[in-house]
Write a structure and sequence with these properties.
This is Cation diffusion facilitator CzcD-associated flavoprotein CzcO. Keywords: Oxidoreductase. It holds the Pfam family Pyr_redox_3. GO terms for molecular function: flavin adenine dinucleotide binding; monooxygenase activity. The protein is an alpha/beta fold. The chain is built from 15 helices and 17 strands. The protein has 2 domains: about 10-195 and about 425-525, FAD/NAD(P)-binding domain (3-Layer(bba) Sandwich); about 195-265 and about 300-420, 3-Layer(bba) Sandwich (FAD/NAD(P)-binding domain), CATH 3.50.50.60. It is about 25% helix and about 15% strand. The radius of gyration is 27 Å and the shape is globular. About 45% of the residues are buried.
Length: about 550
Amino acid sequence: MTARDPNHNPGLAALEQRLAEEMNLLELPAKPWRVSRQQVKPPILDVAIIGAGLCGLTAAAALKLQGIDNVLCLDRAPAGREGPWLTYARMATLRTRKEAAGPALGIPSLTFRAWFEACYGRQAWFAMPLIPRQRFMEYLVWYRQVLALPVINDATVTRVEPQANGLIDIYWRSPVGEARRVARRVVIATGLDGLGAPQLPSLAAGLPASLMAHGADDIAMPLLAGKRVAVVGAGASAMDNAAAALEAGAARVDIFIRRESIPRIDKFTGIGSQGMVQGYIGLPDELKWTLMFEGEQAQIPPPRHSVLRVSAHSRAYFHLNSPLLSLRPCTDADAGADINAGADINAGADINAGADINAGADINADADINAGADINADADIYAKARTHASTRADVSTHAGAIEVTTAKGRWLADFIIFATGFKVDFDARPEFSPLRDRIRLWRHSYQPPAGQQHSGLANSPYLGEHFELLPRPGREAQDAVISNLYCFAYPAVMSHGKITSGIPSISEGALRLARGITRSLFVEDGQYYLDRFRAYDTPELLGDEWRDADQQQEFFSV
């Protein structure tokens, strides 16, 4: 079942009519107020948005509601496949509760629920416990269409170049060739890998690409049928990848977990509220750091249903307290006699074998696509990861294997999946190389106390109150243009809290972003608006609405 054309679906047509009426009542979108003073062709964009998934579309919609319509979104994916929903998201349903308003921006008829009931009926809504990921992608396609958001698909951004005059050049390639536009503001809405790439442990460096993948790669799961699969990590992404491999017919799946026990409590759920959404940005750096550091140490457990989806298979084996010691490409013949290739090690281990990351993986809080982070639909996968995915797809023809060694023994795997999160890494993002040595990171602004050092957090961008990047200390004057770029992606979590890590608070984040851009554009053009103020001469009154008593022939005086 797919979302229906409103011309053939009375329910959807009625919803779109209701949406138009609601927006009319709210006087939305606001009238365009940006007046182009540029005669260049093509015109300078007010805002370019890199990414057209959940964050990118919501940002574009929020800007449109503010009266900023000279906007363009760029996404490397084909239309209808933006974000992770139809590629590396392998959960059956979203982890967010279905009632979350998501990107609706305060407009009832723009919610997922309104769309779903229009397409599938209210009874289907009440019968559905959680949102199937395919339905959410259909909703985002409708969201883009009904709001007429401007997107160029199949467009891979190759360079973002700030200029001394405050403008930003953005280059991309597509099937029709190379292109360039100039923008006054650029929003980076590239999802989980935002300013970096998928994180792989150093042990993976010696493995053939055809034997391994990151959990964010577009893995051809059917080719894992009959294979021995190892999964490193045990957060939500690890569970989803393990389940997908098992459901594809993997002979066995061994899940290697560093921790002795599995986190059972999501600490962030305990403080989730509008206070957290609106207030986190105002916390002192010390409290922000402590919250995120302790959250990283505690880790977020995978959803119970995600773990049960794995443990339902007798071919799944959870290896607790099993950090990797080595990974070695080999064949079954040279692996050694004591290999545990088929041993039911830890077969009876607690099925809640979740929430962990690969030993030594230094990643940002929740960057294992855990509880909520996975549903940021803007994860525009790093180009290298997509290239690797295409080579890894040929796993069925590879004769080799991987010897996995932990303190508990050795195992053989035909394929290994690293569910080890993402990292900020400008070396992995050549399109952002002009920003590499110019943007302020947390390590430039805050030094944690002893015992709280964390390079993943320290390398997160240190953002302003509206998601703007900031120049490094001492370079504020020469690099002021850096603040014309905005990070509305997962790396913003350290500065703004969990607004950009999932669906629930994405509207609040997009409105914060849009209001900041609105203010900055207006302030930048302050003199222009003063000139418009002085030149404005359209009369409100015509002069015939009253009579001047001094000009009247008849009047009384005392």
